Amino acid sequence: MKSDSRLSNILHALLHMAEHEARHGAPMTSDMLATCLSTNPVVVRRTMAGLREQGLVASEKGHGGGWRLARPLDQVTLGQVNLALGEPGLFPETPPVEADGCLVEAAVNDALAETYAAARALLVARLNDITLADLAADFSRRMAEHPKRDLLNAHGHMS
Q1: CA distance 87 to 149
Q2: How confident is the model over 7-35, as pLDDT tens digits?
Q3: pTM
Q4: Using an 8 Å Cβ cutoff, are 18 and 132 in contact?
C-alpha cells in the first residue's frame, strides 16, 4: 500500500525555505527547491502555486526572485498546508466490493471505511495543532543531537 508523500515533501521544502531566508535573506528558486526534493522545477512551481493561492507562500519574479513563506512559521499549521495541497491521501481508500453479493467483503469494507474515517479525523485534528514553528524547533533539537551534525552544518544542508 503506497502512501502519498506530497505533504512530507512540501513540509521539507517549506523548512528549507525558512532556513534559507534566515541565513541568506533571499527567497529560494524553484531550481533550488527541486534539488532539495530531488524533483523537477516544474513540479515545484505547480505545487507552490497551490500554496500561493492559499496565502502560505509568495513568489517574486526576476533576478533574485523565488519563493518565500508568506506568513511567520508559527502562523502556519500542517493542516493548512495539507488543505492547500488538496488533502492528499494520508490513508488508503477502502477498496471497492469486488465479489458482488459477498457479505463478508462488504462487512470488512464497511469496518475499514469507518476506521479510516475516524483515523483521518484524528490525524487532521493533530495536523491543525502543529505549526511550522513546531517542526522547525523539533528539527533544531534533532540536529543538535545528530551524531553527524558538524558535517551537516559544514555543508549548510539541513535535510
Answers
A1: 34
A2: 888 999 999 899 889 889 999 999 999 99
A3: 0.75
A4: yes
